[in-house]
Amino acid sequence: MTKKIFLVFFFAFVIRLIAINQSLWLDEAVTAKVVMTYGYTEIISKFSPTDFHPPLYYLFMKAWTNIFGYSEIALRMPSVLFSLMSGYFIYMIGGIWAAAFFLFNPLIVYYSQDARMYMLSTLFLTAALYYLLASLRVKKHNKKTSFLFGLFISLSFLTFYGSIFLITPMLLYLLFKKQYKVFFVSCFLFLVSFSLVAPLLLGQFANSKIALSGVANWSATLGKANIKNLLLIPIKFSIGRISFLPKILYWTVAGVWTVWVFKKILMGGLKDKKLLYLFIFPLVLGFLVSFFVPMLQYFRFIYLILIMSLLLSRSSQRGWILTSGFLIFTLVYLLNPSFHREDWKGLVKDLPKNKPVYMIISSSDPVKYYSNNLKVNDITNLSGDSKEIIVIPFSFGVYGLDYKRLLNNKGYQLKKEKSFREVTYEQWSLK
User: Fold this and answer.
1) Does residue 125 carry a pLDDT above 80?
2) What DSSP line would sit under 394-427, residue for residue?
3) What gap in Å lies between CA 177 and CA 71, rounded to an integer?
4) Which residue in 61, 70, 81, 41 sits closest to 365, CA to CA?
5) Nearest Cα to 236, choosing from 85, 339, 97?
6) Are 329 and 254 in contact (CB under 8 A)?
7) What is the structure's pLDDT at 7?
8) What's the confidence (pLDDT) of residue 218?
9) Residue 151: CB partners within 8 Å, gap ≥ 6?
10) Residue 230 C-alpha from the chain's centroid
11) Which of 30, 102, 198, 393 is the most buried (most CB within 10 A)?
12) SS3 at position 239
């Protein structure tokens, strides 16, 4: 068994190295900008008030990049390691098949190559689940187990606010099982961590309300509470972030595979109702909260794949079909560049020289990452003095900006357009 689990983790690590140096996308470039620009205290005092996440991940990444640098690989390697460490906790909870279901899940592999906080939060929540289950197995209160459970849920919240949707049912389950000492110790530690970020969280919440009112389509981008966003969660949990044409074939393949996977999940839930509760409760809670604060996007619940993997292991003593299916979807993503992230690297490399570049400034971090000497101008402040300009129309739809009308009113006409993966630049000239 030791040899088998070693091979599982070795192969999981190797596949995470495939295409790990692909272009950073917008949010990853934000991570890069933060750790390159701000000091430790400035991350908390200057950057975090304008962001929508707690600062722990950025503080860790600041320390990491000070040692390993700012390349795509250096920025993404922590998420690779966090996902493998999460897999090890899952192995200790549910065995080799549970670990395999998690490690080769296509969505987990995708976010294992993402320089964002989701894998770190997943690691903390996986460790918290391990110590939660350990506390439930013993009748006598164990102070160490209680402390570690409380510590890890606190660290997860300081990494990603959305982890509260799993933390809440965990704490409620302790009450249900009358584990009062574990509950109170954990709540105390969590309240300490909450008090540390409460002033910051209140400021961020106020800023988010301003953003929602000032940016035309921001709420739709964050994830409104609707059936489409809810149904995307099981689909993406099962097949990852791939799509293909014809759409009828995509929806058939995705639908059949997702239904089969979730049938297995329900079968596992009949054998372990507490895990089914921990899987369903966060989704219901997140759906309800999204009526007031839009956040119903599948990647914000990616930590639930750890619960999903354990449920699948309860229903499949030998999981070759499940593991093979996940691995196929994973390799389709990894080996097909059309499914990779926004190709800002290719776009910046191809930009014409000596022509002013215009775009939404808040979306310009990837451009600055790949060309720190390039000056980026605000499209809303276009003067019309330059004979030829370059426009990158990324996120214009989110901001509700009719940039073509703006450019035409300034006397410009479109001369050339060049597209890369999910990003485009346009060359405009005065008429």
Assistant:
1) yes
2) TTHHHHT--HHHHHHHTTEEEEEEEE-SS-EEEE
3) 47
4) 70
5) 339
6) no
7) 95
8) 62
9) 189
10) 16
11) 102
12) helix
Sequence length of the chain is: 431
Sequence-distant (≥ 6) Cβ neighbours of residue 187 within 8 angstroms:
150, 171
Q: Over the stretch 137-153, which tens digit does the pLDDT of each residue have?
A: 877 778 899 999 999 99
- CB neighbourhood size of 64 (10 A): 15
- Structure-token match 């908390």, residue found: 44
**How far apart are the C-alpha atoms of 379 and 357, rounded to whole Å?**
9
Residue pLDDT, tens place only, 97-114: 999 999 999 999 999 999
Residue 315 has pLDDT above 90, yes or no: no
Pull the structure tokens for residue 397: 């739809």
Global model pTM greater than 0.90: yes
Q: How far apart are CA 81 and CA 77, in angstroms?
A: 6
Helices 180-214 & 164-176, crossing angle to 10 degrees?
A: 150
Tokens 């630049």 sit on residue: 425
Angle CA 73–77–80, to nearest 5: 130
Q: Rounded distance, CA 182 to CA 178, Å?
A: 9
Helix 304-315 to helix 118-137 angle, to the nearest 10 degrees? Answer: 50
pLDDT in tens, 26-64: 999 999 999 999 999 999 999 999 899 999 999 999 999
Distance CA 282, CA 298 (A): 12
pLDDT at 214: 65
Question: Which residue reads 């703006």 in tokens?
Answer: 406
Mean pLDDT (the chain) is: 93
Query: What does each C-alpha distance from 126 to 22, 87, 167, 208, 250 come to in angstroms?
Result: 28, 9, 11, 29, 32
Residue 201 corresponds to which amino acid?
L
- The 3-state DSSP class for residue 226 equals coil
Determine phi and psi for 143, rounding to 5 degrees: -65, -40
